[in-house]
Specification:
This protein has six helices and five strands, in the order E-H-E-H-E-H-E-H-E-H-H. It has a five-stranded parallel beta sheet, with helices on both faces. Helix 3 links the parallel strand 3 and strand 4. It has a single domain, classed as Flavodoxin domain (Rossmann fold), CATH 3.40.50. The longest helix is centred in the last third of the chain and has 16 residues. The termini are far apart. It is α/β, with parallel strands linked by helices.
């Protein structure tokens, strides 16, 4: 009798569009990592501030891109899905997040990858959600869920240590992570 092979662990990237040390979006991602089932690993995308401003001259075919770009592309290449949480800056995508997306375009890193978009901001997050949804759809990602949280509500739900404790927010986040996990490896969203 042959031993049963261990199922391959699936991987989720958590990507925060804010560089703030005490970012509400990062707090939300931190809470989400505890909601994934045991057979799903997660990896935070770090170092967005190290990416040079996107310049196509630094990304010519056959050339080696800057080291932070190579690391970012490797992370996205290995990932099965993405949980992206971002604020909305001046009714748009934060520059550091847009820069990272621009560096990923030529790598095809988003093609057929399921993504849940979350925004935590002072407003309703509609503009950043619409812009990201449009951009990621052009890049052939599978946007399966969009959530918005008001920063004030999230702030009230955090402990002094910055841990999310608001059950209503955790429930919404849990249903989004379940949906993301159920869409790993599929080519069309299952909602």
């Amino acid at each position: 009798m042959e031993p049963m092979s261990k199922p391959e662990q699936r991987s989720i990237l958590t990507l925060c569009g804010s560089l703030r040390e005490k970012s509400f979006n990062q707090s939300l991602l931190d809470a989400a990592t505890g909601l994934f089932p045991a057979d799903v690993g997660f990896e935070p995308v770090l170092g967005l501030e190290l990416l040079p401003p996107f310049n196509p001259d630094l990304d010519q075919e056959g050339d080696e891109p800057p080291a932070p770009v190579t690391r970012l592309r490797d992370q996205f290449r290995r990932a099965d899905g993405i949980l992206l949480s971002t604020p909305e800056y001046v009714h748009g995508i934060p520059g550091v997040l847009k820069n990272a997306i621009d560096w990923l375009v030529s790598s095809g890193s988003f093609v057929k990858k399921p993504i849940v978009l979350v925004s935590v901001c002072a407003g309703d997050g509609q503009q950043v959600q619409e812009m990201l949804n449009h951009t990621l759809t052009v890049l052939e990602a599978v946007v399966i869920k969009q959530l918005s949280f008001h920063a004030g509500d999230l702030k009230k739900g955090l402990s002094e240590a910055g841990v999310l404790q608001d059950q209503a927010i955790l429930d919404r986040l849990s249903s989004a992570t379940e949906l993301l996990v159920s869409n790993l490896g599929v080519t069309e969203a299952v909602v």
